[in-house]
């Protein structure tokens, strides 16, 4: 994050950039990537943003990997200060159903592994303390996912419709979604574009545009798309593998 901060400042004449750290140390911040409650972390980030006078007039945001869906929750739940342009890189907007690098589901081990993981993913002890469990999305048990997952179904409007979530996301000037074409960490990689497995099976995929989230416009993504404010970008690499040149050419233009 320090390198990205320096890159942005070099390209934008020293503009103010803040990288939000959760906890009081780098070690605590790293631990929070794996352990904690995503809802509590979103509330913490919201408080940090509201307390920063440099951001009072609005800010651009970039979410890297799982930080993308967490910052999206910030945009939906915390409209002040306003998020203006928002880019997510390799994020899991529809969750994941697979262990990182184990993407070959013709191999029995990979299929068995994700079925085993699903057995405990929605247990309260895991849901309240393991970050990755809070965006584990089992397409073979959609009801269990919606009932047991404490984070993702809420921000994706899958149980109830919170109109403020939709209106706050619609306030964005641009939403940029980056998918890494060789990503085998995010399974399926199409989750970075709000795509996912069709309900009831774990082979065939559906795009965002084919999903209920879009056709019923539960979150405002269809409206953003039709207004030319929703952008689908790719990077030809593995998870979070991109060059400074790619970042400068594709992401920085939205941060002005």
From TrEMBL:
Presence of the UniProt keyword Lyase in the record: no
According to UniProt, the reaction catalysed is: S-hexadecanoyl-L-cysteinyl-[protein] + H2O = L-cysteinyl-[protein] + hexadecanoate + H(+)
Q: Which residues form the signal peptide?
A: none
Q: Where are the transmembrane segments?
A: none
**Cellular compartments per GO CC:** lysosome
Q: What keywords does the record list, in alphabetical order? A: Disulfide bond, Glycoprotein, Hydrolase, Signal
Tree of life domain: Eukaryota
Any Pfam family matching the protein: Palm_thioest
Entry EC no(s): 3.1.2.22
Which segments of the protein form a coiled coil according to its record? none
A GO molecular function term, named singly, is: palmitoyl-(protein) hydrolase activity
Q: Name one GO biological process term.
A: receptor-mediated endocytosis
Family the UniProt entry places it in: Belongs to the palmitoyl-protein thioesterase family.
Tell me what this protein is called: Palmitoyl-protein thioesterase 1
């Amino acid at each position: 994050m320090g390198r990205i901060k320096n890159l942005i400042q070099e390209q934008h004449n020293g503009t103010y950039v803040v990288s939000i750290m959760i906890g009081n140390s780098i070690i605590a911040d790293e631990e929070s990537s794996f352990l904690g409650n995503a809802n509590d972390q979103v509330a913490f980030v919201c408080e940090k943003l509201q307390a920063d006078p440099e951001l009072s007039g609005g800010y651009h945001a970039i979410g890297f990997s799982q930080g993308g869906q967490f910052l999206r929750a910030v945009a939906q739940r915390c409209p002040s200060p306003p998020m203006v342009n928002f880019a997510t890189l390799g994020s899991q907007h529809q969750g994941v159903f697979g262990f990182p690098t184990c993407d070959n589901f013709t191999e029995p081990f990979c299929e068995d592994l994700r079925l085993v993981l699903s057995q405990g993913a929605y247990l309260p002890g895991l849901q309240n303390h393991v970050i990755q469990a809070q965006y584990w999305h089992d397409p073979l048990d959609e009801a269990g996912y919606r009932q047991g997952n404490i984070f993702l179904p809420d921000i994706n409007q899958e149980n109830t419709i919170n109109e403020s979530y939709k209106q706050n996301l619609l306030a964005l000037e641009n939403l940029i979604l980056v998918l890494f074409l060789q990503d085998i960490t995010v399974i399926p990689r199409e989750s970075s574009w709000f795509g996912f497995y069709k309900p009831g099976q774990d082979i065939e995929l559906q795009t965002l545009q084919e999903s209920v989230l879009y056709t019923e416009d539960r979150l405002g993504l269809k409206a953003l798309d039709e207004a030319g404010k929703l952008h689908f970008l790719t990077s030809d690499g593995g998870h979070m593998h991109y060059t400074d040149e790619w970042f400068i050419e594709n992401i920085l233009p939205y941060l002005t």
